[in-house]
Amino acid sequence: MLWLEAVKNYRPGNEQEEADRRVMLECARLLPDILTRRCEIAHLTASAFAVNAERDKTLMIYHRIYDSWSWTGGHADGEEDLLAVALKELAEETGVTRCRPLIKTPFALDVLPVAAHQKNGKYVAAHLHLSLTYLIEADAEQPLLLNEKETKDVAWLPLSEMVAASSEPHMKIVYEKLVQRLADYRG
Fold first, then answer.
1. What string of DSSP letters covers 67-114?
2. Do β-strands 127-138 and 42-51 pair in parallel, antiparallel, or remain unpaired?
3. Domain boundaries, the chain
4. For residues 90 and 176, what is the distance between their CA atoms, to the nearest angstrom?
5. Is residue 134 within 8 Å of 83, Cβ to Cβ?
C-alpha cells in the first residue's frame, strides 16, 4: 500500500494520532519530496515493531545516534511502500529475514522530533520524522547480526521492558502505546 493512501485510510487510535495524521497530510500537501531526506523539514520513515510468535518479546537495537534501545526503522529514501521499508530496515539492522507482517497496514502513526546531530561527520538540522509503524512477527530463533555502523547492540527484550529500555522520553510514550495496542490486538 502506498504511503499516502495508508495515511489517508489510517484510523487513529487516539487524539495524538488524529493530530499527527493531520500534520502528515498537511506536510504531504505543502512540502515537496517528503519521501526523501532532501526535504530537511520533515520526511517519511517506517519502523518495525517486531515481536516473537508468543508476543512476549520485542526485537530492538541499541541506536548509536540516540544512545538508546530503539525499534528498527529508517528513511523511505524514495520508496512509497513503507511496509517494504520497515521490513528492509529490520533485516539490515538485525539480520532477521524470517518475518511476516501481522497486518499490512500501519499499526501506529507518529510525528517524531529529531534533534540536531552529526551523522557521518555531517551536521543534520533538527527536523521531523513522519513515522508509520508496522506490526511484524519475527522468528526469535534466527541468529541476530549486529550492524555496527548504526547500532551498538541487538537483542530480544521482554515486552515488559521495552519502555524502560528507552532513554528517550518522547519514545517511551510511543512504546507504551505500542505495548498497549499489542495487548488489545486480536489478529
1. TEEE-EEEE-TT-S-HHHHHHHHHHHHH----EEESSSS-SEEEEEEE
2. parallel
3. 3-184
4. 20
5. yes
Residue 65's pLDDT band (boundaries 50, 70, 90)? confident
Q: Provide the pLDDT confidence category of residue 1 given band limits of 50, 70 and 90.
A: low
**Residue 124 parent element (H or E):** strand 122-124
pLDDT in tens, 47-60: 999 999 999 999 99
Distances (CA, A) of 108 to 49, 67, 105, 147, 153: 9, 23, 9, 25, 25
Whether 128 and 31 have beta carbons less than 8 Å apart is answered as: no
Residue bearing cell 546531530: 117
Give the up-direction half-sphere exposure of residue 63: CA atoms within 13 A in the CB hemisphere.
Answer: 19
Amino acid (1-letter code) at residue 156: W
CATH number of 3-184: 3.90.79.10
Q: If you average pLDDT over every residue of the chain, what do you get?
A: 95
With a pLDDT cut of 90, the percent of the chain lying above it is 89
Q: How far is CA 132 from CA 47, 56, 123, 153, 170, in A?
A: 6, 22, 25, 23, 16
User: Nearest 5°: phi and psi at 127?
Assistant: -160, -175
Per-residue pLDDT tens digits for 106-153: 999 999 999 998 888 899 999 999 999 999 999 999 999 999 988 999
